[in-house]
Design goal:
Elements (H helix, E strand, L loop, with lengths): L5 H12 L5 H5 L12 H14 L2 H6 L25 E3 L10 E5 L22 H6 L3 H17 L4 E3 L22 H16 L4 E7 L11 E4 L2 H5 L2 H12 L3 E4 L3 E2 L2 E2 L4 H11 L5 E4 L8 H6 L17 H8 L5 H17 L14 H15 L1 E5 L12 E5 L7 E2 L15 E4 L11 E5 L3 H8 L4 E5 L4 H10 L2 E7 L18 H11 L3 E6 L14 E4 L7 H10 L40 E4 L8 H7 L16 E9 L5 E8 L5 E10 L8 E10 L4 E7 L7 E3 L4 E4 L2 E8 L5 E9 L2 E3 L2
Parallel strand pairs: 2-3, 3-4, 4-6, 5-7, 5-19, 6-9, 11-15, 11-16, 16-17, 17-18
Antiparallel strand pairs: 1-2, 7-8, 10-18, 12-14, 13-14, 20-21, 21-24, 22-23, 22-27, 25-26, 26-29, 27-28
Helix pairs in contact: 1-14, 3-13, 6-7, 6-14, 7-9, 14-18, 15-18, 16-17
The structure holds beta-D-glucopyranose (BGC).
The site of beta-D-glucopyranose has 9 residues, from strand 4.
C-alpha cells in the first residue's frame, strides 16, 4: 500500500483532476502521443517509404508474434528483447523499427502468473466502475496513469480499451467493460484510450465485436441483424474509436453471423476500415485466428499469441500464400503499413521507453479518485448514510473486509504493488489454473473504517457463522455487511446473479438483527438482492482497485459524497432478461464431452439493457443511470433547441447543504412506433450547496437516428421526438418534445 494519507491522496487527486483532468500527468510525459505531431500526409509518406525498404520476409515478420510467456510441454525461450507479459512482435532494427512489447490490460499493467517477480502495479477500479463515474475526465486520467506505468515498465503497447457492450449481465468479463449503453460506454472507453496514448503508448480497443459472454466464446456465433448491430455494439466501438483513436483494434474470439470475428469481412473491412476509415491495425485476440487467406483478405493484420493458434497462419503459411498469389503483396504492404503508421504516430520509433520507477503515490491518488466517483449509493432509507462521526460502535461483517478489496480475474488481473492482501485458488470447469486466483487488493476496508471513525468501537466478524454474525450485529449501533461476487475471464459469473456462499442469508440475518444495516457490494456487475426490502442502505462499490478501501470508507463517512450512477440495469429477476438461461449453459455435451458449436440470436437487437426493460414493461431492481447522493438536486427551466441538431438546456441546482455532483441524463425517443428511449447526452456536474448551473446537453445525432442498411447511412426521420431529462432511464425530471428535420448522414 502506498504510504500517502487519505487526505493527502485526495488533495493530490483533486490537483490532478482539476482544470481539465490529467494535465499534471500528461505534462510529465513526452509528447510522442500527440496525434497532431506529424501531419497525416507526412505520416503516410513515411510509412510508404519504410514499407518500400522492407523485404517480404521482414514485412511478414511484423505480422505475427508469440505470447511473451514460456509455456506448454516444450516451452520455447522468449525472444531476445521481449518483456515477459502478453505479447511480443520483433522489430526491424536495420530500419529503426521497434519491437512491440505488449502488456494487458484496461485496469492496470498485469503480471501474468508473476512472470516478472515482484513487479506490481496500480489497479484502477474495474472498467464497469470507471463507467459508473460517468466522467470522461476520470476515465482519461485512469488511462493516462496505466499508460504511464506501462511505459515505466518498458512496454509500448497496452492491450486496453475493452469496449464490449454489456448485453449479458452474467458475462464473466463485464467488470472489464463500460456498460450497456453505446454513448456512455463509447465515451468512457474512448477517453481512457486517449489518456493512455497521450503517454506515448499504443492502446488497443477490444474485443471487436459481440464477445458478449465467456461461455463458449470460441465456439459460438453471435447473430444479429445489421441495423441493430450498427445501433448498439458497433456504435459503442465507433464512438470509442472516434474519441480515442487507438493504434490497434483487437478482434474477438467468437463468430459474428457465422464468420469468425478475426476474419469477418463485414466488421473488419466494410465497417471498421471502410465506413469508419480506420487507419490503424487489427490484431487478433490470443488464439482467435483460424485461417490465412480468409483472415488476411478479410481484414486481420496481425496474429497475436501465435502459440495458441492451431497453425502458423501469419508466418510461414502467409509467406506461402503470397508466393502462391493467394494474397497479393499489396495487401501485405497495407498490413505492415498500418502497424508502422500507428508506431510512427505514437512516436514508438523514438526508442523504447526507458524503464523507471513509477510514481505509485501519485497513481494511488488517481485510482482513489476514480473509486470515489464510481461507488453508487443504491439505497439510503432514513438517511442512514453517511454515518455520523459520533457513531459509537460498528460491526463490520463478511467479504474478507479485514483483508482487502476484491478484484476481477483473468488476463486483466493486476498484481498489486507489494502483493495481494489475500488470494484464494478457485476451481471451475473451463477456468485455466493459471487464471484461477481470486485476488484481494490491499488495503482492508476494516482498517480504513477504523481510521475514518477513530472514536467508534469497530469489530469484525467473518460471517461464516451466520447466527454469530447476526448476534455481533445486534450489539452494534451500525452493521456493515460486505458481500462479494467474483467474476473472471474464461467463465461466466459462477452462480449467475445470485450471491454465492450463503451471503444472501447472511445479509438477511444481519439486517433482521440490526435495523441500521448497510450492505457494501463488491461485484463484477449486477446481482439479485432478495433481502433489499429489509435493508435500509446499499452501496455498490464494484471492484474498487488498489485504493478502494479508502474510497468506501470515505463514502460511508460522508467525506466523499457519492456520485456514481449505474452503467448497467440491475434486474429484479432472471426472468426479465432476454435470455433467462445463459445461452450455451444448458447444452448437452457433444462427442468427447465438449460443448458443441452453438448460435446465439440476439433477439433484443439494439434494445439492450434499459431499452429492453422499457419495451418489455419490466420494472428493474435498479435502473440504468440510477444513483443517490447525500445532497439533493432540482431541475428546471427546460429549453429545447431542435431542427437539424438537438440541444437541451436547463437549470440544475444543488438544493441540499453539501457539495455534490449530479449526472444529468438526456433521453430521446424517436417517433417510430415501439421505439425505446435512448441516452443521447449526459454531463456530470459538480455543484456547491445552493449553486445553480445552466447545463446544455447536445444529442449525438446517431442516437436520434435509425441505421438504414440499404442506404448505408444513419437516417433521422422527420417528426416529434420525446425528450426527457432526468436522473436515470426511468426517473424523469423534465419533459418536452423536439421537432427534427429529416436527414441522412454517412456512418
Ligand atoms: C484476452 C485478451 C487479452 C489477451 C492477451 C485473451 O485471453 O481475451 O483480452 O488481451 O488474452 O493476454
Amino acid at each position: 500500500m502506498s504510504g500517502s494519507s487519505p487526505s493527502r491522496a485526495r488533495s493530490l487527486a483533486r490537483a490532478l483532476l482539476a482544470s481539465g483532468g490529467l494535465l499534471a500527468l500528461a505534462a510529465c510525459a513526452a509528447t510522442p502521443g500527440d496525434p497532431n505531431a506529424l501531419a497525416a500526409s507526412d505520416l503516410d509518406a513515411r510509412v510508404a517509404a519504410t514499407v518500400a525498404q522492407l523485404t517480404l520476409e521482414e514485412k511478414i515478420g511484423l505480422l505475427h508474434g508469440p505470447m511473451a510467456l514460456s509455456f506448454g510441454p516444450t516451452p520455447a525461450p522468449l525472444p531476445e528483447g521481449a518483456i515477459p507479459g502478453a505479447g511480443y512482435i520483433p522489430g526491424v532494427p536495420r530500419l529503426g523499427i521497434p519491437a512491440l512489447r505488449e502488456t494487458d490490460a484496461g485496469i492496470g499493467v498485469t503480471n501474468p502468473g508473476g512472470v516478472r517477480p515482484g513487479d506490481g502495479a496500480t489497479s484502477l477500479p474495474s472498467g464497469l466502475a470507471v463507467a459508473a463515474t460517468w466522467s470522461p475526465e476520470i476515465a482519461r486520467a485512469g488511462g493516462a496513469m496505466i499508460g504511464r506505468e506501462a511505459a515505466d515498465k518498458g512496454f509500448n503497447v497496452l492491450l486496453a480499451g475493452p469496449a464490449n457492450l454489456v448485453r449479458e449481465p452474467r458475462n464473466g468479463r463485464n467488470f472489464e467493460y463500460p456498460g450497456e449503453d453505446p454513448l456512455l460506454g463509447g465515451t468512457i472507453a474512448g477517453a481512457a484510450i486517449r489518456g493512455t496514448q497521450e503517454q506515448g503508448v499504443i492502446s488497443t480497443t477490444k474485443h471487436y465485436a459481440l464477445n458478449s459472454q465467456e461461455t463458449g466464446r470460441q465456439i459460438l456465433s453471435a447473430n444479429i441483424e445489421e441495423a441493430a448491430f450498427r445501433e448498439s455494439d458497433l456504435l459503442l466501438f465507433e464512438i470509442a474509436i472516434e474519441i480515442g483513436d487507438p493504434g490497434s483494434v483487437m478482434c474477438a474470439y467468437n463468430q459474428i453471423n457465422g464468420q469468425y470475428a478475426c476474419e469477418n469481412a463485414f466488421t473488419l473491412n466494410e465497417v471498421l476500415k471502410g465506413d469508419w476509415g480506420y487507419r490503424g491495425w487489427v490484431m487478433s485476440d490470443w488464439g482467435a485466428v483460424h485461417s490465412t487467406v480468409d483472415a488476411a483478405m478479410n481484414g486481420l493484420d496481425q496474429q497475436s499469441g501465435e502459440q495458441l493458434d492451431a497453425e502458423p497462419y501469419f508466418s510461414t503459411l502467409l509467406l506461402d500464400a503470397v508466393r502462391a498469389g493467394e494474397v497479393p503483396e499489396s495487401r501485405i504492404d497495407d498490413m505492415a503499413g498500418r502497424i508502422l503508421r500507428s508506431m510512427f504516430r505514437m512516436g514508438l520509433d523514438d526508442g523504447p521507453p526507458t524503464p523507471r520507477p513509477s510514481d505509485y503515490e501519485a497513481h494511488a491518488a488517481v485510482t482513489q479518485a476514480a473509486a470515489e466517483q464510481a461507488i453508487v449509493l443504491l439505497k439510503n432509507d432514513r438517511g442512514l448514510l453517511p454515518l455520523p462521526a459520533s457513531t459509537a460502535s460498528i460491526a463490520v461483517i463478511g467479504g474478507q473486509a479485514d483483508k482487502g478489496v476484491l478484484s476481477g480475474g483473468g488476463s486483466s488481473q493486476v498484481w498489486p504493488v507489494g502483493g495481494p492482501a489475500a488470494m484464494a485458488v478457485m476451481e471451475y470447469p473451463g477456468l485455466p489454473a493459471a487464471f484461477g486466483n481470486r485476488v484481494f487488493h490491499p488495503g482492508a476496508p476494516l482498517d480504513a473504517i477504523r481510521e475514518t471513525f477513530p472514536s467508534a468501537v469497530v469489530g469484525f466478524h467473518d460471517g461464516a457463522d451466520v447466527r454469530a454474525a447476526a448476534a455481533a450485529a445486534a450489539e452494534a449501533d451500525v452493521a456493515i455487511v460486505f458481500a462479494l461476487q467474483w467474476a473472471t475471464e474464461f467463465v461466466d459469473v459462477p452462480g449467475g446473479l445470485t450471491l454465492q456462499n450463503e451471503q444472501d442469508a447472511l445479509i438477511a440475518a444481519v439486517a433482521a438483527a440490526n435495523p441500521n444495516t448497510v450492505v457494501v457490494l463488491e461485484t463484477g456487475g449486477p446481482v439479485l438482492m432478495p433481502w433489499l426490502d429489509e435493508t435500509p442502505a446499499v452501496l455498490e462499490a464494484w471492484y474498487s482497485g488498489t485504493r478502494g478501501a479508502q474510497a468506501i470508507a470515505g463514502v460511508l463517512s460522508g467525506a466523499v459524497n457519492p456520485s456514481g450512477r449505474l452503467p448497467v440495469t440491475f434486474p429484479a429477476s432472471l426472468e426479465q432478461l432476454p435470455f433467462p438461461v445463459l445461452p450455451g449453459s444448458d447444452l448437452p455435451p457433444g462427442p468427447g464431452g465438449a460443448t458443441p458449436f452453438f448460435e446465439i440470436d440476439y433477439v433484443e437487437g439494439a434494445d439492450v439493457g434499459y431499452r429492453w426493460y422499457e419495451t418489455r414493461g419490466h420494472e428493474p431492481l435498479f435502473a440504468f443511470g440510477h444513483g443517490l447522493s447525500y445532497t439533493t438536486f432540482e431541475y428546471g427551466d427546460l429549453e429545447i433547441d431542435d431542427g437539424r441538431t438537438l440541444a437541451v438546456s436547463f437549470d440544475l441546482t444543488n438544493t441540499g447543504d453539501r457539495a455534490g455532483a449530479e449526472v444529468a441524463q438526456l433521453y430521446v425517443r424517436p417517433p417510430q412506433p415501439g421505439e425505446a428511449r435512448r441516452l443521447a447526452g449526459f454531463a456530470k456536474v459538480a455543484l456547491e450547496p445552493g449553486e445553480t448551473r445552466r447545463v446544455t446537453l447536445t444529442a449525438d445525432r446517431r442516437l436520434l437516428a435509425q441505421f438504414d442498411v440499404d442506404a448505408n447511412a444513419w437516417r433521422v426521420d422527420a417528426g416529434g421526438y420525446e425528450v426527457a431529462v432526468g436522473r436515470s432511464a426511468i426517473a424523469t425530471e423534465l419533459e418536452g418534445s423536439a421537432e427534427m428535420r429529416a436527414e441522412s448522414f454517412a456512418p
